[in-house]
Amino acid sequence: MPAKSAAQQKAAGAALSAKRGDQPTSKLTGASKEMASSMTEAQLEELASTKRKGKPEHKRGD
Questions:
Q1: Can you list the alpha helix ranges (DSSP code H) found in 1-62?
Q2: pLDDT at 9 > cutoff 80
Q3: What is the pLDDT of residues 14-53, one digit of tens each?
Q4: Distance between CA 21 and CA 6 in Å, rounded?
Q5: What's the gap between Cα 60 and its chain centre?
Q6: Could you tell me the CA-to-CA distances from 9 to 23, 28 in Å, in that order?
Q7: For the whole model, what pTM was predicted?
C-alpha cells in the first residue's frame, strides 16, 4: 500500500529508522511512534519507499 501523502511517507521513514535501530524509539512522536509499534519492517519499508512527487503534504479527511 503506497503512502497517500508526503507526511505519511515521512512518518513511515522515521518509524522504519527507529525499527532498524538507527535512531532511538524515544525520539518518535505521533504517527511515527504508532507506526513503529504496530507495523512490520516490510510494511514500513513499502510506505517509506513511496515517491513524494505529486503527493499532497497532508491528506484531507473525507
A1: 6-19, 30-38, 41-48
A2: yes
A3: 999 999 999 999 999 999 999 999 999 999 999 999 887 8
A4: 23
A5: 17
A6: 17, 14
A7: 0.82
Q: Which of 15, 43, 44, 47 is nearest to 55 (CA)?
A: 47
Residue indicated by cell numbers 513503529: 36
- Give the total residue count for the chain: 62
DSSP structural state of residue 45: H
Tell me the residue type at 3: A
CA dist., res. 32 & res. 15, Å (int): 5
Q: 7, 57 in Cβ contact below 8 A?
A: yes
The CA-based diameter of the chain, rounded to the nearest angstrom, is 35
Q: Identify the CA nearest to 10 among candidates 49, 54, 40.
A: 49
- The amino acid at residue 36 is A
